[in-house]
Amino acid sequence: MTRRKAADASATGIPGWILVVAALGALFVLLPIVAMVTRVNWPQFGALITSQESIDALLLSLRTSLTATLGCLVLGIPMAIVLARVPFRGRGLVRAIVLLPLVLPPVVGGLALLALYGRRGLLEGAIPIAFSTPAVIIAQTFVALPFLVLSLEGALRTTGERYEAVAATLGAGPSSVLFRVTLPLVAPAIVSGAILSFARALGEFGATLTFAGSLQGTTRTLPLEIYLQRETDPDAAVALSLVLMAVAIAVVAVAHGAGEPLRRRTT
Predict the structure, then answer these.
(1) Is residue 99 classed as helix, strand or coil in its secondary structure?
(2) pLDDT tens across 113-152, in order?
(3) Do the Cβ atoms of 148 and 72 come closer than 8 Å?
(4) What is the pTM of this model?
(5) Alpha helices of the chain — where are they, by DSSP H?
(6) What CA–CA distances, in Å, run from 224 to 46, 145, 196?
(7) Would you give the distance in Å from CA 18 to the centre of its chain?
């Protein structure tokens, strides 16, 4: 049996110790999930996740996350195209700023949004949306947008510009090339990036709490409900966490599957 495993490892061209470390990494991620599953109060699971507060938080999260994903598509696709296709001075700095929400603590992002849109913000309260449902959508879009831009820009760089060049020589205008050649080529990356943006928006906590607050049915998303339940009803918090985790796993699995056509196309 040991010889067979060694033969299988050598056949992949990967050192055996890499497989061991990879297995340890998988366990590092898997064991906390298993531990959470063992903490779930299964007899009361249905009642815990179907309380009015839980349903309101889940529906609000789904509604705002879908809207935020649409915002990411509208803003992120043009940004990714410009970063991948248009050479200009300072492009690296612009890319760093666009991707900044990836590394910023979410609370800092929330404070930045509050400094812009708050009553005493830079806009002087001209757009009074803080602590409202639109504030949730803006916070989610702010933190999720880089996922779409990063995914799509990488795909655009991988596919190159040869197909667009051929279409242009045949007389197609810039808009025709964009909608008939470029976007269809990177459609799997757009879908994958949108799904990842949705997953990030669904799990957003810090920026939402700082910028939008926690009002049931208005700004209290599922992560905020889990945080509040952790203090008053730990069983409900664990049950809702499992629901959110299951949705996230499903979303990431779908995103990975959506990216397969692009990977096959480029290999």
Answers:
(1) coil
(2) 999 988 887 886 677 788 899 999 999 999 999 999 999 9
(3) yes
(4) 0.85
(5) 2-11, 16-39, 45-49, 52-85, 91-98, 106-117, 133-159, 162-169, 174-177, 183-185, 187-202, 206-212, 222-232, 234-266
(6) 20, 21, 20
(7) 29
